[in-house]
Design a protein that fits this description.
This protein has 178 residues and is an all-beta fold. It contains no helices and 11 strands. The chain has a single domain, classed as Porin (Beta Barrel). It is 0% helix and 49% strand. The N and C termini lie far apart (34 Å).
Length: 178
C-alpha cells in the first residue's frame, strides 16, 4: 500500500480554535505562530538489505514504494491548543506542552484506482522555533522531529484493509516563528 495522499482536503474548523478560521467568518488573515518545512517519510525498520516498511497495510509479497514528501506545517496557538495547517489547508488540531506537540488530523478521503480509502493521522513531534529552546533534543540542522501514524478507518480498496496503519517519520527546519 502506498501511504495516504492529501488528495481531498475537507474544510475543517475546530471549535476551540474558531478565532483562527478565516473560512468560519473571520475577516482578517491570521498569520501562523510558527512555520516549519517538514519532510514526511516512510518509517523503515530492519538493517541493510532487510529493511521494510513499518506498516501492517503491506503484505510480504507486495512491493511498496518509499514515501517521502515535503510540506509546510503551520501552527496556530490558542494557549495549549494548536491548529495544524499543512500547505495552507486545515489539517488537524492538537495540544502543545513546552517543545512537544500531539495532534490528530481530520478524516481524509483518498481516491485510488482500487477504490476509496478513508483515513486519519495521529502525530507527535518535538519542535523548536527561531528563538531556539530545547536545543539539546535536536541534531544539527533539525528543528522538528516526530512520528505520524496513518490509520485506515474505511476502505473500498480490497488491498487496503480497515484498521491497518502506516508508520511515518517527520523531520524539518523552522521557517518562521515557533
Amino acid at each position: 500500500m502506498r501511504p495516504p495522499s492529501l488528495v481531498v482536503r475537507p474544510v475543517v474548523c475546530f471549535a476551540p480554535l474558531l478565532s483562527f478560521c478565516v473560512a468560519c467568518g473571520g475577516g482578517d488573515e491570521v498569520l501562523p505562530d510558527g512555520v516549519w518545512d517538514v519532510t514526511v517519510a516512510s518509517l523503515l525498520v530492519g538493517d541493510g538489505d532487510q529493511q521494510s516498511f513499518s506498516s501492517d497495510c503491506i503484505s510480504e509479497d507486495e512491493v511498496a514504494t518509499v514515501y517521502s514528501k515535503s510540506f509546510k506545517y503551520e501552527l496556530y496557538y490558542d494557549g495549549e491548543a494548536v491548529l495544524v495547517e499543512i500547505d495552507g489547508q486545515a489539517f488537524g488540531d492538537g495540544t502543545r506542552a513546552g517543545c512537544n506537540l500531539v495532534y490528530e488530523s481530520a478524516v481524509w478521503l483518498d481516491e485510488r484506482a482500487g477504490g476509496q480509502v478513508t483515513w486519519y493521522v495521529e502525530g507527535a513531534a518535538t519542535y523548536r522555533g527561531v528563538a531556539g529552546g530545547c536545543d539539546n533534543q535536536f541534531p544539527d540542522g533539525v528543528d522538528w522531529t516526530g512520528t505520524e501514524v496513518a490509520i485506515v478507518v474505511d476502505s473500498t480498496d480490497e488491498s487496503v484493509p480497515v484498521g491497518c496503519t502506516y508508520d511515518l517519520v517527520t523531520s524539518g527546519t523552522v521557517v518562521s516563528g515557533g
